[in-house]
Design a protein that fits this description.
Catalyzes the transfer of the alpha-amino group from S-adenosyl-L-methionine (SAM) to 7-keto-8-aminopelargonic acid (KAPA) to form 7,8-diaminopelargonic acid (DAPA). It is the only aminotransferase known to utilize SAM as an amino donor. The chain is of the alpha/beta class. It has two domains: about 30-65 and about 335-430, Aspartate Aminotransferase, domain 1, CATH 3.90.1150; about 70-335, Aspartate Aminotransferase, domain 2, CATH 3.40.640. The chain is about 35% helix and about 15% strand. The protein is built from 13 helices and 16 strands. A seven-stranded mixed β-sheet has the order 4-12-11-10-7-5-6, sandwiched between helices. Strands 1-2-3-15 form a four-stranded mixed β-sheet. A hairpin with a 2-residue loop joins strand 13 (about 360-370) and strand 14. Helix 5 packs across helix 9 and helix 11 (about 340-355) runs parallel beside helix 13. It is globular and about 65 Å long. The model has no long low-confidence stretch (mean pLDDT about 95).
Length: about 425
Amino acid sequence: MSTPSQWDALLADDRAHIWHPYASATDPGVIVPVTSAEGVRLNLADGRQLIDGMASWWCAIHGYNHPVMNRAVRAQLEDMAHVMFGGLTHPAAVKLARILCDLTPDSLTRVFFSDSGSVAVEVALKMAVQYWQARGEPGKRKMVALRSGYHGDTFGAMSVCDPVTGMHHLFGDVLAKQFFVPAPECDFDADCPESELDDITDLLSRHHGEIAAVILEPVVQGAGGMRFYSPDYLRKLRALCDAFEVLLIFDEIATGFGRTGKLFALEHAGVEPDLLCLGKSLTGGYMTLAATLCTERLASTISGGEAGAFMHGPTFMGNPLACATAIASIELLLSQPWQRTVERLGTELKEGLAPAADLEQVSEVRTLGAIGVIELKQGVDLRQVTPMFVERGVWVRPFGKLVYAMPPFVMQSDDVATLTAAMVDVVAKLEH
């Protein structure tokens, strides 16, 4: 389809039949038709191009239509697109599992594949509960989560999202009731005072007999507010979890594979969790795939319990196409000086967004790794700002009070400058 009338028809069908994420079915607002993508650019139906500042919700770290990634998909397709994982295995899954175990902390030796980040979190929560059941402590089934945290949109994941900023307050009455503690306030580059953990220390001391695990996003809280905090908090939290016999789950779905300047955010603290959730850029944005890693102790305990197995099994678990793509993405990332690339992006985002700090409507400008955030004093209207960004040739999708960028790692300096200038310009034109 290439003519305006054909695209008008397509958009009409879209409006009639598709329900977009976090949008009204009857009045979804601005929907921008994309015909193809290359590098960091989205090609639109009307011939315009947009510089993608979102890496397609933080996953397309190598950009679009990358020849290495394309070859990996084609090569795997020649062998098989999919095979069930129950009772069967295949080279791509085995190799990917070995790579993930090699790259993550030594204590994480087992990999459970799933289809999406939300399901990876569900798997971690279920593993934590089943672990304590196998240990003869079925009362340990509640979770502790941080305020301003976000872990996904399925029911278990929603239950550990912040009830307010996690976007799921409408479901509060039907979700499992979990414990919440204040998010750390200590800055990323500062030590974390013991007082920051007073609330969770008190909670664990009183309720550890009913708590299975603590779950949090290490160092960077994503969709709950794009907040950065001190790695020292993680070190102190690990000690607390050990003292009170509570498992520790790290959700690195957004931060994994270099986004914070380390391959995994946990490396900032040198802390090893009991369970680790990965997703998003695991496949470089090509396929949907997630993974939950756990310790040998946890895996063997569950396997020795009543069921003799972990009770979960996605239909597309270990999908060969997705696993082969993930291998290609990780090998491509590690074959390059990605740390220097992320450091450059961070510097350019910091410099480009700095002028926004002087605007009256801006609360704070902050950056970490290849993440740049402008936090406003009031919420952003997507219907207002989306056309403003498109007119400036960039794709940025704010939420709440946040106008932010997580660009593909392949974005060059001139495109970063265009992206940040557009962000500052649009924010400057918003009413305050």
